[in-house]
Write a structure and sequence with these properties.
With about 400 residues, this protein is of the alpha/beta class. The chain is built from 16 helices and 14 strands. It is globular.
Length: about 400
């Protein structure tokens, strides 16, 4: 099968490329698909609360080439607050423009259509385009909605939006030819939703080696002088400040562990200002400004241990695969995670430890144990993580799993 006869449309409202902020999972996969003689089109939007710099000033569509594949930007309703109803309408608008684009570009005729949540409404577009083009439909689940909405945002199971989204989720599981999840035990959730077992492919977030080896920059030295304390054991978190991560559980440990520890929290998000206000009297807790992704490694290297936490929610028991763990593991630092979660990349690599939710003594003792080690001993733990993701989670390897699902590679 030549390239002309191998066409994939990858639809995700929140996909992005490096020139507008960062290469997301989608663009990393598209780059690898293209290397396998596949004609790839990434269809995304210029409406996102995640990135400030996105293309503007066009009517419906903007097409560009990037790393050998096509990127089609759709101009849809903008919003600022991720919890606003305008975001909901932005999802609907995106799907309308997706279908309009498909009608105008029907001659391209994709053989495979990937719809990547969020938004769940892309499932509807995917099912329609599957029928129109007689294509294989792949439903990629990166967040289990509406279950996350119910458990983390405390929305009622009987809320009209939840009922609608649950119907769409079930539609996606039922009509998709393949289901891909970034969480290891998604199959258990799918079985509950469908009332029967259906095969689910576990393809977690990966590491783009080109980005980590070739696109890194050093953060401004003034940032390091201003925010990185000297002669402290540095416990660092880098990522989003949102309710799902229950960062106050990490901060509460800082109060009892001693002044020779410094807890640094880097990033942005809806919970950041309230956390800064609530814990302003904690002398060993510091909140740092967000930095570009390609400068983050230079900051992570300043830490002694990297940490993360999760709320105690059933949805996390199906598995977690945060993008930040890839950043963490590449930096060659040990990781400690607080929460009742399933995370194979930590357990299999040996680079991290998961502490049960609420077990603050064990969490604190693990930090004390790491402090008692030499820097070389801690680095040896961290190296296990870097070696694991390079060997098992680079996008070249993960893309081969995906392409087998397309039917373009024989097993």
């Amino acid at each position: 099968m030549n390239k002309k006869n191998k066409t994939v449309w990858y639809i995700s409202k929140y996909a992005n490329i490096q020139k507008y902020g960062a290469d997301t999972r989608h663009s990393s996969f598209c780059k690898e698909f293209t290397k396998n003689n596949i004609n790839v089109r990434l269809i995304t939007s210029n409406s996102s609360h995640l990135y400030e710099k996105l293309p503007r000033g066009f009517n419906f569509f903007l097409n560009e080439s990037y790393n050998g594949f096509h990127v089609t930007w759709l101009n849809v309703i903008k919003y600022k607050n991720s919890k606003s109803f305008i975001r909901f309408f932005s999802w609907l608008h995106f799907e309308f423009v997706v279908l309009l684009f498909a009608v105008l570009n029907r001659r391209e005729k994709p053989q495979v259509i990937i719809v990547s949540s969020l938004s769940l409404f892309s499932v509807i577009s995917g099912v329609i385009l599957k029928k129109v083009f007689d294509a294989k439909l792949v439903f990629e689940v990166r967040d289990i909605w509406p279950q996350s909405l119910i458990e983390i945002q405390n929305l009622s199971s009987y809320h009209p939006v939840v009922i609608l989204l649950r119907s769409i989720e079930k539609l996606g599981y039922h009509y998709s030819d393949e289901i891909v999840g970034t969480m290891s035990d998604l199959n258990k959730h799918v079985a509950i939703v469908l009332g029967r077992n259906k095969n689910v492919n576990y393809i977690p977030h990966g590491v783009d080696l080109d980005f980590y080896y070739n696109d890194q920059k050093i953060v401004d030295l003034q940032y390091l002088k201003l925010y990185i304390p000297e002669n402290k054991f540095i416990v660092m978190y880098a990522g989003s400040f949102n309710s799902a991560y229950k960062l106050e559980n990490l901060i509460n440990c800082a109060d009892s562990i001693g002044e020779d520890f410094a807890f640094l929290f880097i990033g942005d998000g809806p919970e950041k200002e309230s956390l800064k206000e609530n814990y302003k009297d904690y002398s060993n807790v510091h909140f740092l400004p967000k930095v570009p992704k390609n400068e983050l490694q230079s900051i992570l290297k300043c830490s002694d241990v990297l940490v993360h936490s999760f709320q105690r929610k059933n949805v996390f028991k199906y598995g977690v695969s945060p993008n930040k763990f890839i950043d963490y593991m590449f930096s060659e630092k040990p990781i400690v995670c607080l929460g009742d979660v399933v995370c194979p990349i930590l357990s299999l690599s040996g680079a991290g430890e998961i502490i049960n939710y609420g077990d603050y003594n064990t969490f604190k003792n693990r930090l004390l144990s790491l402090r008692s080690m030499t820097e070389a001993q801690r680095r040896n733990i961290g190296i296990l993580g870097k070696e694991y993701i390079i060997k098992n989670l680079n996008y070249k390897i993960l893309s081969e799993k995906y392409i087998r699902l397309f039917g373009f590679i024989e097993d």
